[in-house]
Amino acid sequence: MYYRPRLARATVLALALCALPLAGLAQASFPEPTKMTGAFRVTAEDAGQPIFPGSTAVLVGSGFAPGQEVTLQRGTQVLTDGPLVADEAGNLRLELPLPAEAAVGMHPLVVLAENPSATELLDLKISPEVPLSGEADHDVTSVPSPAPGLYQVRYSAKAEALFVTASSFQPPAAAILKLDPETLEVLAQVTPAAYPPELRDPDMNPRFAEAPAAAFGLGLDETRGRVWVTNTPSNSLAVYDRQDLSLVKQFPQGQVYHSREVLVDEARGRTYVTSSATAKVHVFDAESLEPLQVIEIPSTLRGENFYVMNLALDAEGGRLFVSSRATSELAVIDAESGEVSAVYPLSGAIHATGLAFDPASGRIFVTGQGSDDVLVVDPATGEVLHDVPVGAGALSVAVAPETGLAWVVNRGAGTITAVSAEGQIAANLPLGSYPNDVTVGADGTVYAVNKSLGPDDARGDLITAIRPR
């Protein structure tokens, strides 16, 4: 019976305090807003390696105003003993020891600059350290590539051959390789020609017209004996003969903006090409090579745009799957009508990239390049059944039909991981610098390609075959 008066007094006191002027608050000067000119690059102590719990993150800043003071925070926790001061060249450096119990994931840091004042967010990614396993169960053979800048690899059962694309920019070079899948010897090699004048886009950088047409994405049409290749820097694509890699058709520059992935639905006679800086998938007639339609995918996230990346096909079920890197979503397209039937958010994924469909389990594997994981997803509902940490920079994935294992190449970790449809890791093998793509042969052999840290990197630009013992 005595609580009501006490509550009333408390309420009156609170109202009275609210009515007082906030004289104790500091007055901000609010100088003219400025844009942050500097930027940080975040690396491990050993450049090119992931940042793990208990390791040291190195933050290297450049482009700041000389004498500009910079403080870094994680939430309200200040990470610097005092402000970092940019030198005469505008450079900064901070070595940040991480606790052993630091959580794996993407950590947003606040960059606070003064003189002039500016604020930005910076992502610090701490990756899972997945132990190696299964090395005794596999024979691994690697050979150096005759062409630098390996990008994608595909196995052709009809040709009994392995096809590989490669491109580099300093100096400009490109190649399409046809290899013996047993010995990894080169059976045929072609350097794509420069664009003839009638196929050049006058608004495009001339170096992309005068240099060989860069070879990036790779798709096989086993039925028609053709190899599709995307020329990403020149927004184009080309088709080659599977037998001798002779050119069948070079599309003009500007045909598909930032063309990335290419996939052929042989039964329906359609070829799909992702325009990876947009929400569009371009469709071509696989026989006539003529454009048919453009499928635009909406995002389920308010104010966001679907950013198409990789493709996977459920040939029997008539479904095409597309990943979105920017929004981490999975789109399902009806392969008959070309209509988008569903778009699912992928909980747990950051920068969803690689896709592989497993007909046996009916599940789809999706890699998260920013979250260092592979998701096992039910494509009928979009439900994430398993979220498996596999290593830094999980990028491309391919399913081995004989085992049902999804093989994931992890670009940052330098590994390849085999994951079951039940979300269990069956093997985790070293693969060299910057693994980039993976495919599976008819006998279950797994083939992978990786890039290089530089011209003297003995672990880079390798073509690798992994055979179970």
Q: Tell me the count of domains.
A: 2
| CATH architecture classification name of the largest domain | 7 Propeller
Main CATH class of the largest domain: Mainly Beta
Cα separation of the termini: 81 Å
Mean pLDDT: 93
> What is the strand tally?
36
Shape: globular
Structural class by helix and strand composition: mainly beta
- CATH fold node name of the largest domain: Methylamine Dehydrogenase, Chain H
The CATH homologous superfamily of the largest domain corresponds to YVTN repeat-like/Quinoprotein amine dehydrogenase
Helix percent reads under 10%
Counting H and I runs of at least 4 residues, what is the number of helices? 2
Radius of gyration: 26 Å
Beta-strand residue percentage: over 45%
How do the helices and strands line up, and which of them pair or pack?
Elements: H1 3-19, E1 39-44, E2 56-62, E3 69-74, E4 77-78, E5 84-85, E6 92-97, E7 105-114, E8 118-126, E9 138-144, E10 150-156, E11 161-169, E12 172-179, E13 186-190, H2 207-210, E14 218-221, E15 226-231, E16 236-241, E17 247-250, E18 259-265, E19 270-275, E20 280-285, E21 291-296, E22 308-314, E23 319-324, E24 329-334, E25 340-345, E26 352-358, E27 363-368, E28 373-378, E29 383-389, E30 394-400, E31 405-410, E32 415-419, E33 425-430, E34 435-440, E35 446-450, E36 462-468
